[in-house]
Amino acid sequence: MKKLNVGLIGAGFMGKAHVVGYSNFPKFFWPVEAVPVLKTVFDVNPEIGKEAVARFGFEKSTADWRDIINDSDIDVISICTPNDTHAEMAIAALKAGKHVLCEKPMSNSFEDAQAMAEAAEEAAKKGIIAMCAYQYRRVPAIALAKKFIDEGAIGKILDVRAQYLQSWSADPNSPLSWRFQKSIAGAGTLGDIATHVIDMSQYLAGDITEVVSTVSTYVNERPIQEGGVDLLGTVKLSGDVKKAPVDVDDQTSFMVNFASGAKGSIEATRNAWGRHNFITLEIHGTKGSIAFNYERLNELDVCFADDADDRRGFKTIHTGPAHFYGEVTWNIPGMNIGYGELKTIEIHDFIKAVVEGKQPSTDFAQSFKVEKVVNAVAKSNETKSWQPVL
What we know:
Dihydrodipicolinate Reductase, domain 2; 2 domains; globular
């Protein structure tokens, strides 16, 4: 059985998610194209890196991420660090001949994202795979929605409504992590979570060509936290601690036009009390509609126009072994999967792409299309006008 040695750069929340995927996918997708070997891990905090050896099962840790890039034994690299580090790490890895899975968004600037896409295009000539971690398009229910759309089951798409609502930063006492700092994150909600529903919308309905937007910041300063660990709102600091400015967005809403002629709207916020990981999509076509809610990710609601008048309405399909990625959905519909299985699907897609030498659906070129939309949204907010996606 072929083995692929894995290097992990960043052992925090997302690093753990990638490790779950690497560790679990052979347990689901058997026989597998290759078996991953957890070789070396890096974290900016050396103690976290050392802990990851025991916790995750890596052979060793390093205090310098370049050690992973320069190690001839490493085959694939997962980059799970803050956005401002992605470009340097990914480009270096691709030039060193490593296959790269990079967390989204691609970078904290449009220019760096473009440089990453160009580096990936050059590396692809040598068979190197570069993939961005847009896992939500890999939810089996979303893959099923794509099948229905491609088959023409809902006809020509008329409009798309997409939302990504969270609440973890609604409390002003949530600490000032790197996600609230433009120099590191590049953008707030727009780059952090709106990118996911942009990707899902383009996956299902085609390229977005034009946007008009509004972007807002509700909490203008936050308590300074100790250390650089991303706490994602799980810790609240008292109101009398030192605070620093927030210079990224909390909320964004924008209307979109698709190349197909379809219309749509996308909304994202991290300040929606009561919403946890509320990703919703509703797509209306000339022959039917599709609706999805990630908080019920094992379900897809569908309505077809040719249903009889006395029974027309949304019905729920529970995804299971008969659907996409059935190996991960256990034995019968309704047993259900969660975030861990979803990252397992993502890692399997990555490893399969590496072995087969075929760029995955979320390669850097496709991911750069998301960055183009983000760039247009930011420009539209400044100009208060429609902006083309260039």
